[in-house]
User: Fold this.
Amino acid sequence: MIEVVDIAPLASVQDLGRAPYLRYGVSYSGVMDRLALLAGNVMLGNADDLAGVEMQAFPCRFRFREATDFAVTGAGCTVTLDDAPVLPWWAGRAEAGQVLTIAAPRRGARAYLAVAGGIDVPVILNSRSTQFRGAFGGHEGRWLQAGDVLPVGTTEGTLAAPGFGAQPPDAALPADFAPDDLQPNTTAVRVLTAGEYELFTEESQQRFWATGWKISGQSNRAGFRLLGQPLDFAKRLEMRSHGIVPGIVQVPPSGEPIIQMSDAHTAGGYPKIATVIEPDLWRLAQAPLGSRLRFVPVAYKDALVAVRQAEAWVASLRRLSGQYRSLCATGRRP
Amino acid sequence: MKADEVRQIAAWLEAAGLDSFELTTPTARLRLVLGGVVAPVAEASRPEALPAVPSLAARGTGIFLDAHPWSDAPLVRPGQRVRAGDIVALLRTRALIQPVTAAEDGIVGAQLVAPGTMVGFGTPLMEFTPETRSTP
Assistant:
């Protein structure tokens, strides 16, 4: 069991989401940064689909009732276990009664706490993710509050102090596709052009690529609203609602793009100009409010290469973490 | 190095499907070749620059890092007093980052390898002067 001692708003229990239920109108839910939760689970030897805690505001404080292996990934936060510093992207062991504090990040936006055995809330519609609109899943279908007690799946912890780390993915999967004129405080993400790209004027198509779109304060797990000179339609089109997935970039009549994220509706009718590729969704998840985004066109086959690169990084971490944990378990910790 | 350690290394080599192994320490050089007798190794020249003071050595292989990849500040600075178990450096192997810890209380000295260098088991990483913890 983990006690939520202190929690800033907007923290929730999430896993990798409910993709199979999109067709029934149940939104995806799940973590915003899949790579970060996946890495945490992989470092601990958990199944990939176990749940952790997503934090979007800080500080957050958790007390471990029993000795527990844990990992903190995602944003570069100042993390301490009692008074001892914990490095970013680190897996360690907390003894019974120890308190883990995750303070405001110096880079990135969202931090993840994974524990060996996972946060063991009931599985509903194939997932432990919190579904806010339907108020189910996760911990009582809601954001976490101070005083909540989260169950942890049973497992044998094997980590010894001081644990081990993972190379943060921005180093392993560098944004070498970013344009040369990328401004500071700007995240580049690769996109495939979408069905209605041709509806925009040529000038607006160029501007879509050239603009550093600002992520507005009205952005959240459902979507990012972007600020910039509105895009112009060459031809207005009334569309029926159709299925949408996280990463889709829609342009409502106002002309300022919206990127659909984990808690997006499952259908929408705005024209789609592009789709952020799945292996870059973690970059979006770590882009803070007020920072800027650049869209970079990518060919479908290069998007598949990006998927494989991310998978290779996870596979490498899985194999090496497994070896390191077994060294710890046999007392031959390097 | 003790005979049972050599035997253990040979067993690991066999388990890993490797057929040869070389280890150089400040005082000895070991070469193991599985599956046959080979000509003796030419007399190893002793490394010239032995650390002047006791040093802290790598207990794994990887790329030596004196700071976390996300930090400009080194984990420890020369002259810093550390406790047994404190992380003083990191070794990165692809996606994995292993901690290098102080085996006992002491004071770290100068770095002996440059950050970004690939190091092997036993490579001295930084000077280290053990301290006896004063008992009150």
